[in-house]
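Please fill in the sequence for the structure shown.

STRUCTURE ENCODING:
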């Protein structure tokens, strides 16, 4: 709430400083009758002592006083940022030009001549109280403004923080859904619990040594597990068939690449855009004999070339319903043999270079227990019936 100058005038506190008790008390009485809060002091020293407690808006002070005169008092108050806005009226003799000049240079705001005329005293107080009002108003306004800016900045900072948390939660949720979706697709025909995690980490390890930046590595990490999402569209009779597939069945099986790409197509999310390409091309071969398009060499997207080697290595080194896992050495030999035919030779070289890292990922995501899966359940049911 702000006061108008008129209202403020009534709340003004005035300190009257004079060593002449008659002048001091008569000025004090007049001002009290006007409704001001008044305090008195005998000299500048006492005025300073009373200042902190009384906090006057205006000081009316005599010029000559024992202990500390009016000019010194004026200088001290006007040199202190805390008290600089106090209005100071210096009482001087009539036509005492020298004292007035001294008073002005000490920072006095106004002058009263002896003998003091009551109407003049009231008029001077009124005009100084207005000045004091505007000083205080501006000071208060600036303070409020600063506080408001500080408050808004804090609000903005908090909102920004909340937004960051919400965004990271959304990202975490999206990535978890991607992982679970990939798991759902693999669950139908793979019984290797951590297959998608291993593939994902193998891909990141290869990508790191290929010099991919962090953003690309993150995309690869979350897109590669979706490579076989298209298996969701392959009939159980083919996907879960225990024996070898016929030529026709194999052609249908190959469609999981196209189905996967269709499931993921049209997304604006960079993870899913990359996953679409990986799903479509992870069975392409470096020499052009893969499917579905028979792409050759670097025409096959890099992420698909990386995922291909990670996926094959993991498939070879884990138990399958129809065969036991190969040893790491045998699996590596197969990959070596396929260098330049199935796999990108540069990626094979990197794979061998980071062999230890690959093996520690394999160890970290070891499948401790077998997860019951549809293939096994189906076999069990058919045995019982
Ligand atoms: Fe596949
Ligand atoms: Fe796979």
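FILLED IN BY: designer on duty
SEQUENCE:
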């Amino acid at each position: 709430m702000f006061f108008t100058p008129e209202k403020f005038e009534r709340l003004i506190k005035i300190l009257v400083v004079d060593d002449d008790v008659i002048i001091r008390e008569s000025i004090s009485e007049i001002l009290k009758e006007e409704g001001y809060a008044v305090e008195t002091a005998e000299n500048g020293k006492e005025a300073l002592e009373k200042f902190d407690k009384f906090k006057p808006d205006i000081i009316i002070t005599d010029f000559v006083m024992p202990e500390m005169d009016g000019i010194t008092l004026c200088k001290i108050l006007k040199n202190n940022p805390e008290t600089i806005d106090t209005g100071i009226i210096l009482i001087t003799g009539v036509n005492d030009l020298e004292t007035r000049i001294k008073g002005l240079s000490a920072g006095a705001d106004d002058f009263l001549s002896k003998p003091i005329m009551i109407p003049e005293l009231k008029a001077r107080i009124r005009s100084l109280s207005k000045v004091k009002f505007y000083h205080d108003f501006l000071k208060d306004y600036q303070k409020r403004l600063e506080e408001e800016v500080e408050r808004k900045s804090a609000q903005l900072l908090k909102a920004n923080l909340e937004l960051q948390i919400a965004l990271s939660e959304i990202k975490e949720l999206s990535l978890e859904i991607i992982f679970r979706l990939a798991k759902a697709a693999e669950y139908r025909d793979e019984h290797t619990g951590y297959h998608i995690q291993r593939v994902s980490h193998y891909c990141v390890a290869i990508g790191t040594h290929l010099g991919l930046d962090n953003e690309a590595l993150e995309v690869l990490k979350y897109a590669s597990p979706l490579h076989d999402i298209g298996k969701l569209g392959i009939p159980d009779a083919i996907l879960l068939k225990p024996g070898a597939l016929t030529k026709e069945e194999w052609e249908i099986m190959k469609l999981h690449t196209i189905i996967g790409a269709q499931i993921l197509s049209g997304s604006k999310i960079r993870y899913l855009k990359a996953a679409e390409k990986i799903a479509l091309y992870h069975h392409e071969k470096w020499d052009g004999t893969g499917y579905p398009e028979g792409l050759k060499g670097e025409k096959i997207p890099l992420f698909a070339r990386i995922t291909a080697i990670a996926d094959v290595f993991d498939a070879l080194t884990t138990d399958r319903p129809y065969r036991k896992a190969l040893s790491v050495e045998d699996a590596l030999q197969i990959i070596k043999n396929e260098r330049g035919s199935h796999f990108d030779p540069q990626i094979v070289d990197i794979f061998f270079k980071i062999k230890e890292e690959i093996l520690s990922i394999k160890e970290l995501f070891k499948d401790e227990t077998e997860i019951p899966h549809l293939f096994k359940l189906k076999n069990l049911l058919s045995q019982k019936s």
